[in-house]
Amino acid sequence: xxxxxxxxxxxxxxxxxxxxxxxxISKAKSTLFFGCMAWxxxxxxxxxxxxxxxxAGFNSNILxxxxxxxxxxxxxxxxxxxxxxxxxxxLMRSVLPAKMTVKNLFYxxxxxxxxxxxxxxxxxxxxxxxxxxxxxxxxxxxxIHFATAIIFAVTAGGVxxxxxxxxxxxxxxxxxxxxxxxxxxxxxxxxxxxxxALLLARDMDGDIDLSLTYKRDFVxxxxxxxIAVLFILTILTAIFLNLYFTIPPVLTFLFGLSxxxxxxxxxxGDKILHMLDYIREIEFDSLLFFLGVLLLVxxxxxxxxxxxxxxIYAILPASLTTYVIGILAGIIGNVPxxxxxxxxxxxxxxxxxxxxIYAVVMGGTLIITGSAAGIVTMGKIREVTMMTYFRNFAYLxxxxxxxxxxxMMLGPLV
Length: 414
What we know:
mainly alpha, transmembrane helix, antiport, transport, transmembrane, globular
């Protein structure tokens, strides 16, 4: 009976995630509620002699969550500052020429989406790039194609670096992959983006005048530039220190954040916002969602509910199972699936874990609600709905599959 209660908590949380839009209840609230309820229920039903063991399991779960939380907190504060100051948007608008073909603009936007999502989180990059597309004089079909490319490219850029996608940092923090080998995923993701861009751009024609659409008189603040450079240096330093001294990236990012707060306090006469106010710009909904999901998955691992995942990997070819899990990520979400696979403690070589990262991240783009970038873009570009996005499903699956194949081919290099 107690186990039934725990399964019910997990099932209710999953249903709340699926029907978030219909229920009007944020998945962050529902998963946190059921995650906490499950652990409380586990304590109550356990015998006195079992509670120390439960406490040890809970403490281990919280330690994993804290490492992820603090890393995301640090990187998201950097991104919130850079985005709030308009640096990303201004840079994109300044590099575009006054006039260009729609097809070349499409390629430029797609490439920009991919490159900037290497540094910024997917939701922020999608928000910025979508706002660039909104004022353009494009027809409905072109807008849908632009949006599809943005969602896929933004998500793809997050595959290769620990700052890009939460799934990548989850698997990296679990010690399943080396930080340098993650860069191989960038090659596969870039190829996948290229395939999709070529497919979507086939029927695009005409020119577009950008001279009246975008203002180009943005004035860069020296402190803003310094903090943007500091963010890039923090990423590079985190990679270097982890590679040569095994220093956890979360420590390097917290150190970088401390420097950012100190540097930002000397803004001269520019007092738009106090530096600590940028912390309020962070998407705490996402952080609370991760917390709730990881609490639930930790509970399921404790009652051995995730053993079935390990059994599936033992029965079927690992690559085939991972490919299917990637497709399921579009429906269920990549965070719950990744957390479940990690907690199942499957024994796989590193190249299979790299394959899993690619699959669960890129699989989330097959359905528009499966990724943060998709949800943000759908809210910004009104022509994009679940059905209009689904029209390009075949192209998305093909691009996803090509990238998956590239990761498999790069496996021997790991």
